[in-house]
What we know:
This protein is mostly beta strands and about 675 residues long.
Amino acid sequence: METKGDLKGAIKLFNEIIKKYPDEREYAAKSQLYIGLCYEKLGLKEAEKAFQKVVDNYPEQTETVYMAKEKLITLRRVHAFVEKGDKEFKVRQVWADPDSDIEVWGGAISPNGRYHAFIDWNTSGDLAILEIATGKIRRPTNRDSWDPSGRYAMYPRWSPDGKQIVYLWDEGSVSDLRVIGIDGSNSRILYKNEEWPWVQPYDWSPDGKNILATLSKKPREAPIRIILVSVADKSIHLLKTLNWTIPGEALGNMEFSPDGSYVAYARPSTKDSLKNDIFLLSVEEKLEIPLVEHPADDFLLGWSPNGKWLLFASDRTGTFDAWIIPFSEGKPLGPPELIKKGIGNIDPVGFTRKGDFYYGISKQMVDVYIFTMDSETGKITSQPNKATIPSEGRNSYPVYSPDGKYLAYTRASMRNRGPNSLCVFSLETGEEREFPLKIRALLPRWSPDGRNIFLTGRPTFRLYGIYKVDVQTGMLTPILMYKPQDKKNAWFMESSRDGKSFFYQHQDLEKSLCRIFVRSFEDGTEKELYRLSHLLGISWSLSPDGKWLAFVSREKKRALTIIPATGGEPKELFRFEHIGGHPTALTWTADGKYILFSLSQKKEGLQKSLWRIPSVGGKPQNLGLRMAYYDNLSAHPDGEHIAFSSWGPTYQMPEIWVMENFLPKEKTKEK
């Protein structure tokens, strides 16, 4: 069932089908089932009535009746949590603004439920606060645009009284723990240490005196210290040390119990696992206690305000659902109970004081798109369509093989965290080979002979290196890595056309310096071609003849520049102002006569347009093709087909939702 987001319209359509074709029992039964599914997504009580109609009116439609009964069982289990006289369990949307260019994603809800703290990635990397009722946004850290050094805020968390926010301030080679008043006053640094440079805040203690945080020498790489930082005197109190690396975002959420006695968090149960269990850590005894142990992947959503229930998500049924488990004095009081089926890969933003749980939903799915164009005139001859590959929604960075017979791309995990996969798709047979990786891989590039694919990857959260994947065996081999103390990243750009050397981007995190090098595969000798005095990163593409390297940096005022592949004076082709922090996608056309690039302008809102410019210089041409964004443009050798990854024609802004009245009511004790 696809409703394109118009659930009420879909209900009307299915009702019309039932009335118009009452004798088509199979279609009528399925239409009635779809009505129930629509009501369920809307969080309305009519869902149960609709499913019951399937059972009562179409008993001979056994498969559809079975599905309806399964839904009724789930709904009635949820209703069992709500005693008579209580308000109804409700799931509703509280924020979605398709016309806004501010992406409200991640962060935390204020204790009173009025405000949402988040990071403004589109404009400046600032700490921002949304007033949900009015849509007004203010920025306590108050910067107008991205800092050339690439500094930004992350992980905001509200104080219990709702007057302050603690957050991470990322400076590249080191991060600070900072606290600020919601009006921008009284900003101060609570923690900064070169020896343990990565600090991440998770929660405030219920009395507001301490910040729950983690420390590591590299992001999420062992050892990881769980600590308390005193708000008053900045002293550090160690709670526990985790002695193995936590891959990706696996540690997830971490919170104090409402009485301050325990800390709950999810982590892998074994060193090599990507599946999480949920644990408690007693603050006084510093003992770790397993709370939710299951072969599935479980992650923490939060504590109920009274401390008697723990809400978590799990994929144990095949989809991510919301579950709740009763808790007292460090022990579960019973098995978990299903609360909300199919809640998805949500981003928890917290409980309010009255027990409402807020979370973020992103409807964006990234996929590979392909269009065709006339290489001479620039006319688009067919609009972008999704590539017909086996799996949708998690595919990025497509790149054609040198012979044009294959398309390589990466595929994210279901929760889009930790290691991903490299996929190679045959354009002739439709066969896909998927190679699971032990790194988070980005930006694949083929070797000239088509035998290997080079990747930029990170085994942990932040530091990048260069790897090679054998296309036949899937074997992953490191090519260029730096030691943690070097504080450097390496990004693979392109192989030279003879396959003897490669171009790469070198980032020095301490000096805030980005340089482009060409390096020999054989002996490692290298030559610097270009340097930029910031860490905002660049996009790039090598000309088909291998003689020129085109690139664009991620500054607000950008320049499309080409430099000789052997070194020499750069040539600026086009200077433009780009809206937002997303990189400019670019690629040379197969004949080398033009460079295609994406451009984001204020008048285009949330869409990006596609342009081309003669590679020898000249007037840029708008090709009239607009998408939510373009990533990793790749030109097929035939000169007609162009592949890229995107969210689609339009960008769907993240939404904030709330679950209300789902916590069991406390029974009044008899006198």
